[in-house]
Specification:
CATH class: Alpha Beta
Order of helices and strands: EEHHEHEHEHEHE
Oligomer: single chain
Largest sheet: 5 strands, mixed
Number of helices: 6
Radius of gyration: 18 Å
CATH topology: Peroxisomal Thiolase, Chain A, domain 1
Number of strands: 7
CATH superfamily: Thiolase/Chalcone synthase
Helix content: 25-40%
């Protein structure tokens, strides 16, 4: 069985912190110098009380809205995060319940940083090509800003918060997809050997 990309969506928190904001908070920092060193002018960060699971749910809801995919056909949920809402339960259980995914859906977390999305894609492909899963939802969400010292130029200037949701399926023409996929849905096979 081949693995196909059925859709991708993202969510960015509404709050934005610019380099000028950081320079005001940290006398002696220069907004232009931060941009020259990092290539970053601004970053989206969560508001108080907003969590990685919140971001992940919003990205997944956007994906379902854009693709028309039937969420009840998801049989595996993989959540990649290094900033989970709680030590226990994992964010996958929270997101599964909040999205209304079937209780028969396998749900687990992958606690990796930069490589988490890549490993999540690899896991999703392995599950689909082995026949263990038909439709896999991969959610990557992190709120690194919550862990950065606001006065540490080596971290606060680099990290923001965001979430992405990716849908992989064994059959892009199957019952989970609407009959008229939007133009943004890729038509190429991905991750095939």
């Amino acid at each position: 069985m081949n693995c196909h990309l059925a859709g991708i969506a993202h969510y960015l928190p509404k709050r934005v912190v610019t380099n000028a904001d950081l320079a005001v908070q940290n006398p002696g920092w220069d907004a232009d110098k931060i941009f020259k060193k990092t290539g970053i002018r601004q970053r989206h960060v969560v508001s108080e009380g907003e969590t990685a699971a919140d971001l992940g749910v919003r990205a997944a809801e956007r994906l379902f809205d854009q693709s028309g995919f039937d969420r009840h056909s998801i049989d595996t949920l993989i959540v990649g995060t290094q900033s989970p809402d709680y030590f226990l339960p994992g964010d996958s259980a929270l997101i599964q319940e909040r999205l209304g995914l079937p209780t028969t859906c396998a749900a687990f977390d992958v606690t990796l940083g930069c490589s988490g999305y890549t490993y999540g894609l690899w896991l999703a492909r392995a599950l689909i090509t082995s026949g263990s899963s038909r439709n896999v939802l991969l959610v990557s969400a992190d709120t690194y800003s919550c862990y950065c010292d606001p006065h540490d130029m080596t971290t606060i200037t680099l990290f923001g918060d965001a979430a992405g949701a990716t849908l992989l399926t064994g059959d892009p023409q199957g019952p989970g997809l609407r009959s008229d996929p939007p133009s943004w849905v890729p038509t190429v096979e991905v991750l095939a050997t």
